[in-house]
Design a protein that fits this description.
The protein is mostly helical. It is built from nine helices and no strands.
Length: 198
């Protein structure tokens, strides 16, 4: 991924965040339960953080097309999961699915697996349903659903970007080992979340 691509992605995420906060200031009561709550929800949940960073890592590891595709598929499908959560549509094993996302995607990076892009997108999209449902189901009653959704979408994008930036190290032999090690650590953390040890 070129520096120009990274700069464009960072500007896009920043402008989305600024637009959300500008709108939030129009109604101060919606800020606490709206954009800010949505933004903090994935950031304060380590199970969400490691899985979303793993998506960026895997995208960077797989290469040019995946580095754009996987971090776009995840929030797009996550939004669908969020709507399901808002509507109280039951999706079983939410917490287990979130933990499994860290285990599986982390393991893909650790094992240096590069499946076809469509298959990687299906894997990422399937796990995004669980993350989105958790966000939507936990929406505070007083929150503005649009601002809350914007908040967790921006936070997700920034976490993906963090994973991509770390994953760029695969260009060098030592960096490749470090990225694979990060994938292994994420997978182990997922096991800890699934077992209840973390």
């Amino acid at each position: 991924m070129s520096t120009a691509h990274l700069r464009t992605l960072a500007i896009l995420l920043l402008s989305t965040w600024l637009a959300g906060t500008a709108h939030a200031h129009a109604d101060a009561s919606s800020l606490a339960g709206g954009f800010t709550s949505g933004f903090l929800h994935p950031v304060l949940g380590w199970d969400h953080v490691v899985a979303m960073v793993a998506v960026g890592l895997w995208g960077a590891f797989m290469g040019e097309k995946a580095v754009w595709t996987l971090p776009v598929v995840f929030p797009a499908v996550m939004a669908v999961g969020g709507v399901l959560g808002l509507l109280a549509v039951p999706v079983p094993f939410i917490e287990e699915g979130i933990a499994a996302s860290a285990i599986v995607i982390g393991a893909m990076v650790a094992a240096a697996l590069r499946p076809p892009l469509w298959l990687a997108a299906v894997v990422v999209g399937a796990f995004a349903i669980f993350h989105g449902h958790a966000h939507g189901a936990e929406l505070p009653e007083a929150a503005n659903p649009v601002l809350f959704t914007a908040g967790f979408m921006v936070a997700t994008g920034l976490l993906h970007l963090g994973g991509i930036l770390i994953g760029m190290a695969v260009r060098w032999p030592l960096g490749l080992k470090a990225v694979r090690l990060c994938g292994g650590l994420i997978s182990l953390l997922g096991v800890g979340f699934l077992s209840g040890a973390l």
